[in-house]
Backbone:
């Protein structure tokens, strides 16, 4: 198979790519898929990436209006393929693709097409599959195969025509109903549609697409429900009785404990649980819950983790837990209106608004690795003890056996991703100029240096990206989510953003992978382009490293910098070029070639910012970009691959 060492690519893969090209017959691909598709780790073919052996590891052709179908054997040659994405095209035909030779696939995204047929069974046996997106094809039918890879972190088959019960595998049951919504024939948890007694969905077999048959089967459900309703009622009564019995027993025990310590004040159950509505499509405000925990804020840095303390909000930030306005209790939080902010790697985030209290953000942690309460508290306090003006402090945490929450101040100006990419092309966008971006680059570098230098911490950030950089009222950077990668399972860590090349092998985050992420963040700041790994659903991004290297190599130099900073012209160009050089140094393929964060801070701080008003009318932009400076960067720091041409 591997004829790559001699040629720099595999001949078989070349034949397969050419056959894919012929099959898709897309004018753009026909034009640009020429020459060698790989030369060791360099690919000039749009959407194709190769590894150092010249084998294809990624085919990503997204949002290109591609038509036609994908042959069943289209990918069997690509044994090293890790990422396959055709999202948001118009591909059709039966999805009988054979993936059994693609044992290294981590991401398959065929969402937003017109595929029909069943979910390929060969995907079930891919041991490292982390993400499968098939949503929005409308025509995919049949049942969901029993995916159960422990690596599977993202799964979405919504808005198709799937049917039958959702297999009760651990992996499939771990996703929310939104991964399955829009399939009228699917039943069983996590959907709210019950399956009938034959194990089939209540809407009969989902292959039937017409609404009439669906309505007919709905009547059938109602009939079935009438039969089981008495039984359910009986079960509920028994459960309530058992719950009541348990609760009163625990209450008695707790009262006795309090009595023994002469501390009895309130009568509350230990079992009171926090209930927070999950984030759904509907992001309207709603109350967090109506439980009434007996909680009170404790003083600053009160780190007592006894059983009683565990059920309270523990305030860990400076200036919290003392001032009358800033303090609040879990009961205030439970009464707050909550607005979903998003679903991230570490859990869901909510904005909580309490009457007369500061607005806070609650992060409900999930995917935590197994650890005792004490271990959790210890690690969390290590994170909370990181103090730096560019790190978003943790205000408080809540550690209960079923629920672990982190609380942060709500940062009004939102995140860097929205600042960079939001409202583009709209009249109300406030331009994000060079000075502001340089300030953010500096702030983030300092925050990362602080994390890397603190010998008591020594946990890398692990998930640096533009949505984890928040902007305070003066647009200073506040890095968030630092250290949380150390709390989550290794499987969940695989979803971290901006995967560095060595991450593919080591599967662990490190200081050097943080440096890589910082370099990618700089490229996002400089180009104003959405990175492929940070792109939210429905937005396509580019692989920033590949794109910038290619732009330098092919001398599209005037296109590298975002138009909004390009207007700063003469005064800014040397600084922009220097920052680009630093970014390219940070994204060196070999981790040992990347600089330490303290070196990066020194270099970024050396960049001088001159008042841009000096040269507002300067029209020498083109000249600035076509001078020798960019080619110097290309031949110096940007790595070997762009020197080859
Ligand atoms: N303290 C905060 N103030 C304002 N917005 C916040 C705050 N914390 C998080 N956000 C925003 O809430 C959204 C969800 O955040 P969250 O950290 O859960 O996910 P993420 O950053 O998109 O992904 P990940 O979990 O991988 O970091 C993001 O847009 C983030 O910028």
Residues:
């Amino acid at each position: 198979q591997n004829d790559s060492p001699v040629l720099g690519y595999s001949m078989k893969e070349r034949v397969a790519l050419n056959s894919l090209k012929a099959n898709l017959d897309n004018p753009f691909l026909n034009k640009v898929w020429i020459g060698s598709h790989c030369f060791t780790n360099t690919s000039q073919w749009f959407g194709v990436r190769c590894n150092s052996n010249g084998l294809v590891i990624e085919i990503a052709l997204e949002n290109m209006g591609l038509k036609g179908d994908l042959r069943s054997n289209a990918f069997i040659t690509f044994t090293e393929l890790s990422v396959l994405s055709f999202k948001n095209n118009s591909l059709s035909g039966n999805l009988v693709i054979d993936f059994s030779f693609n044992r290294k696939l981590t991401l398959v995204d065929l969402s937003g097409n017109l595929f029909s047929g069943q979910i390929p069974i060969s995907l079930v046996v891919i041991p490292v599959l982390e993400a499968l997106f098939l949503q929005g094809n409308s025509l995919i039918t049949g049942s969901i195969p029993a995916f159960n890879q422990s690596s599977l972190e993202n799964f979405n088959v919504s808005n198709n025509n799937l049917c039958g019960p959702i297999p009760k595998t651990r992996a499939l049951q771990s996703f929310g109903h939104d991964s399955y919504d829009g399939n009228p024939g699917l039943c069983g948890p996590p959907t709210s549609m019950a399956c009938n007694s034959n194990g089939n969905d209540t809407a009969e077999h989902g292959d039937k697409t017409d609404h009439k048959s669906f309505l007919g089967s709905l009547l059938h459900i109602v009939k079935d429900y009438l039969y089981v309703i008495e039984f359910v009622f009986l079960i509920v009564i028994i459960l309530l009785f058992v719950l009541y019995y348990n609760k009163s027993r625990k209450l008695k025990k707790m009262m006795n404990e309090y009595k023994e310590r002469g501390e009895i004040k309130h009568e509350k159950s230990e079992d009171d649980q926090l209930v927070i509505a999950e984030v759904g499509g509907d992001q309207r405000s709603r109350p967090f819950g109506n439980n009434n925990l007996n909680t009170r804020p404790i003083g600053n840095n009160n780190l007592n983790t006894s059983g009683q303390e565990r059920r309270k909000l523990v305030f860990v930030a400076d200036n919290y837990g003392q001032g009358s306005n800033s303090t609040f209790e879990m009961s205030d939080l439970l009464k707050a209106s909550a607005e979903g902010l998003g679903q991230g790697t570490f859990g869901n985030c909510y904005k909580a608004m309490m009457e007369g209290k500061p607005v806070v953000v609650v992060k409900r942690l999930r995917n935590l690795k197994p650890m005792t309460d004490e271990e959790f508290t210890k690690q969390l306090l290590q994170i909370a003890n990181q103090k730096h003006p560019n790190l978003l402090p943790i205000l408080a945490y809540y550690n209960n056996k079923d629920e672990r929450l982190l609380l942060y101040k709500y940062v009004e100006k939102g995140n860097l991703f929205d600042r960079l990419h939001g409202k583009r092309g709209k009249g109300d966008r406030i331009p994000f100029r060079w000075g502001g971006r340089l300030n953010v680059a500096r702030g983030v570098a300092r925050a990362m240096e602080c994390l890397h230098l603190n010998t008591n911490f020594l946990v890398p950030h692990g998930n640096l990206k533009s949505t984890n950089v928040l902007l305070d009222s003066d647009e200073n950077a506040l890095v968030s989510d630092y250290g949380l990668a150390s709390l989550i399972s290794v499987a969940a860590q695989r979803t971290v953003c901006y995967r560095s090349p060595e991450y593919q092998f080591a599967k662990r985050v490190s200081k050097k992978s943080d440096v890589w992420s910082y370099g990618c963040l700089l490229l996002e700041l400089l180009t104003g382009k959405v990175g492929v790994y940070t792109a939210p659903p429905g937005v396509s991004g580019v692989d920033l490293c590949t794109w910038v290297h290619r732009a330098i190599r092919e001398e599209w130099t005037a296109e590298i910098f975002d138009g909004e900073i390009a207007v700063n012209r003469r005064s800014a160009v040397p600084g922009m070029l220097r920052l680009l050089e630093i970014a390219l140094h940070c994204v060196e393929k070999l981790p040992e070639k990347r600089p330490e964060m303290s070196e990066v801070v020194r270099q970024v701080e050396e960049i001088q910012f001159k008042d841009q008003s000096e040269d507002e009318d300067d029209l020498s932009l083109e000249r600035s970009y076509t001078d020798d400076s960019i080619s110097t960067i290309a031949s110096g720091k940007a790595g070997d691959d762009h020197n080859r041409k």
User: Anything to note?
Assistant: The radius of gyration is 27 Å. DSSP finds 19 helices and 20 strands in the chain.
